[in-house]
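wait is this the right file?? whatever heres the structure
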């Protein structure tokens, strides 16, 4: 059984409905297919069907790579496509809890039974974003739109470092916003992986994992099945108001700490195109399962309508 510390109540994510402002700039989709995406199959076993991005080296106390989010403001954004048939996790009750872990997990930067962690899942198709601080509480907030409709959606998840405030944008619309745990939630440079994985969780704890529940803790914590493209990690709040997602792949800038276009198309290296001072951090594709994933796929959110 996967163990999770239930920490004292700090706040409750509040759903906000608001009108969409007129965008000031619109970038139309390109006219040809751009690159690749990764197609995951939800095989939450044996460290497969996922992308693993290292955020710490537990053999030393050196600072982690730039992709170790949580010490500053942060934005995690990507494009996602999936169906309810392949992602059957039911709705969860959001609030001062870790219920995000009960959805089909898309992004997992957990620390097994320890603080300073976060993750993203889909519960009844609705994006959920959960954060646990370092003794400052635990909060899950939930969006309202079911994004598992077999079409591409842009999802953005933000945390303000000063007070822990959390937000979720779906296709540029603010759907959840509320207080969250304060403090530093980056992976501790002196962090020790918990002894819960048949030994220390060295193969799962010090990674940010895309497309799977990172510890392979069993069917109670299902992994995501579907397509993911264009993952960008930023050490800033990119969106302060509602917006129209761009119809072109992300670009890197001074706020980008990790940028994964998933355009490698072959092999197991997932290239970080952030060109971040201090070094880019490539991901590792862990391919396997039945069906085997994640597969390189020509399906992208930038294919023109047919």
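ok assuming it is, sequence goes like this
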């Amino acid at each position: 059984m996967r163990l999770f510390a239930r920490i004292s109540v700090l706040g409750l994510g509040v759903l906000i409905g608001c009108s969409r402002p007129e965008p000031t700039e619109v970038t139309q989709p390109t006219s040809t297919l751009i690159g690749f995406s990764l197609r995951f199959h939800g095989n939450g076993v044996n460290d497969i069907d996922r992308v693993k991005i290292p955020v710490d080296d537990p053999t030393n106390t050196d600072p982690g790579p730039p992709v170790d989010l949580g010490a500053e403001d942060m934005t995690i954004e990507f494009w996602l496509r999936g169906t309810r048939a392949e992602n059957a996790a039911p709705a969860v009750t959001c609030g001062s809890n870790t219920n995000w872990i009960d959805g089909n997990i898309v992004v997992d930067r957990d620390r097994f039974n320890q603080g300073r962690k976060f993750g993203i899942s889909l519960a009844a198709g609705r994006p959920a974003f959960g954060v646990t601080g370092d003794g400052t509480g635990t909060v899950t907030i939930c969006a309202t739109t079911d994004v598992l409709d077999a079409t591409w959606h842009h999802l953005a998840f933000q945390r303000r470092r000063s007070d822990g405030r959390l937000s979720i944008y779906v296709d540029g619309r603010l759907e959840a916003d509320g207080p969250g745990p304060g403090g530093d939630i980056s992976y501790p440079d002196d962090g020790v992986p918990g002894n819960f994985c048949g030994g220390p969780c060295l193969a799962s704890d010090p990674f940010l994992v895309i497309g799977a529940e990172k510890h392979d803790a069993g069917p109670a914590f299902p992994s995501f099945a579907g397509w993911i493209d264009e993952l960008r990690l930023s050490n800033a709040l990119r969106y302060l108001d509602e917006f129209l997602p761009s119809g072109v792949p992300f670009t890197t800038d001074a706020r980008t700490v990790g940028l994964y276009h998933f355009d490698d198309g072959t092999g197991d290296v997932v290239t970080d195109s952030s060109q971040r001072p201090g070094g880019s951090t490539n991901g590792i594709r862990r391919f396997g399962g039945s069906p085997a994933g994640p597969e390189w796929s020509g399906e992208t959110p930038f294919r023109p309508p047919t």
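The first strand starts at residue 37 and ends at 41. so i think its the right one actually
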